[in-house]
Design brief:
Strand content: 5-15%
Radius of gyration: 16 Å
Number of helices: 7
Largest sheet: 5 strands, parallel
CATH architecture: Alpha-Beta Complex
Structural class: alpha/beta
CATH topology: Protein-Tyrosine Phosphatase, Chain A
């Protein structure tokens, strides 16, 4: 989706994990927060949760006037995910910090900085808690460059029903 040049006047960078979320509440949360672009920082944007795998998520967000960008280079590598799952946060930090120095991570970080400055953006990953997710490290790296304030938000359960929000479902959602 090609959009005209915009500026993020809020000077905020949102982060969000979709763990346990319904896709309707997820989209309603984004719309309520005024998110214009989701920057997916999962290494492999696949999910068993309905609506959260890359292609369908991309279609759903675009149908609801939210841009979707996947930056694989900012995803947590497998050994980092395994360390985090095992509760070894120190090892996770070492692995992910080393990963952030790779050529692909640096290129995607540069792009993420540009994207975050051009529209109200939200970094997306799976984990509900920002304290246990690499997206916070990515957000800190972006904010160090842009001066943006990081605002972790959570998917509000029931917000779609409460606000009588019905997301637009593209034909791809039914395939």
């Amino acid at each position: 989706m090609k959009k005209s040049k915009q500026v993020n006047m809020e000077n905020k960078l949102y982060t969000l994990g979709y763990e346990s979320a319904a896709i309707e509440d997820f989209i309603a949360t984004l719309k309520t927060a005024g998110i214009q672009r989701v920057i997916d920082v999962r290494e492999y944007p696949l999910s068993r949760r309905k609506g959260f795998s890359k292609n369908i998520l991309h279609a759903l967000l675009n149908a609801n006037d939210i841009e979707y960008v996947h930056l694989k280079g900012l995803g947590d590598p497998k050994n980092g995910r395994e360390a985090a799952r095992a509760g070894d946060y120190k090892k996770f930090l070492q692995i992910f910090s080393a990963h952030m120095k790779t050529k692909q991570a640096q290129a995607d970080l540069k792009l993420a900085i540009e994207l975050a400055q051009s529209s109200v953006s939200c970094l997306l990953c799976y984990e509900r808690s920002p304290d246990e997710c690499h997206r916070t490290i990515v957000a800190d790296a972006i904010a160090a460059d842009t001066g943006q304030r990081i605002d972790p938000i959570g998917v509000r359960v029931g917000i779609a029903k409460k606000n009588r929000f019905t997301p637009v479902y593209p034909e791809a959602a039914y395939a």
